[in-house]
Amino acid sequence: MKLNLKGATVVLQGFGNASTFTGEYLEKLGAKIIGVSDSKGSISIPNGAKVSKLIEHKQKTGSVVGFPGSKKISTEDLLTTKCDVLVPGALENQINANIAKNLKCKIIAEAANGPTLPEADPIIFKKNILVIPDILANSGGVCISYLEWVQNNMGYYWTFDEVASKMESNITRGFKDAYALAKKHKIDMRRATMALAVGRVVEAFNQKGIWP
Predict the structure, then answer these.
(1) Over the chain (212 residues), what is each successive 10-residue block's mean pLDDT?
(2) DSSP letter string, 51-99
(3) What is the pLDDT, as a whole number, of residue 68?
(4) Longest pairwise C-alpha distance within the chain
(5) DSSP-based three-state secondary structure for 113
(6) Are 108 and 88 in contact (CB under 8 A)?
(7) pTM for the whole structure
(8) Do 197 and 139 form a contact (C-beta atoms < 8 A)?
(9) Which of 9, 40, 115, 175 is deepest in the core (most CB within 10 A)?
(10) Helices (H), strands (E): how many in the chain?
(11) Are 173 and 155 contacting, i.e. CB atoms less than 8 angstroms apart?
(12) Cα 5 to Cα 16, 32, 107, 130, distances in angstroms
């Protein structure tokens, strides 16, 4: 996509673990947070804000709303803010067809489960917005659970860095494989990711003769 994350603008919907950690990692890569929300409301921060400062403000006041230099906006305005990366990391069914038509982002990274309605997917695909679907974008926990199972079976335990490296390797490979499939068949990333997942189950069934 030729998108440099250094200087890229990011909007975080939700301010729980998924969004805050996503924001922190993107921040380390040089991105700037220009919009955020929690259960109390949504805010626009044109000049950007550090995630640590937003966390500090929320701990003091109970919400990101009222953050210095911010303006309170609606959920729809937050989701349709012009940005490079939109992270829906709150509730399901947030991006419907109407919101999809007004999206002004380049990437949607689904940190929440099911934040995009099926009616919105074709619209987003036509707008050439890259979606990193939920079953791929927020699969870190599932990857870690698998790695814990492997360690328990072996009776041998890895360091945090080893576990993190193996998780990153799995997710990165999954993304690259899904992206290649999407490009090959000219389909959206959600369909590509589902096709890849089903294909792997079929492969396991054919090789083992049992459901994995």
Answers:
(1) 94 94 95 97 96 96 96 97 97 96 98 96 97 94 93 96 94 96 96 94 84 56
(2) HHHHHHHHHHHSSSTT-TT-EEE-HHHHHTS--SEEEE-S-SS-B-HHH
(3) 96
(4) 60
(5) coil
(6) yes
(7) 0.91
(8) no
(9) 115
(10) 9, 7
(11) no
(12) 22, 9, 11, 15
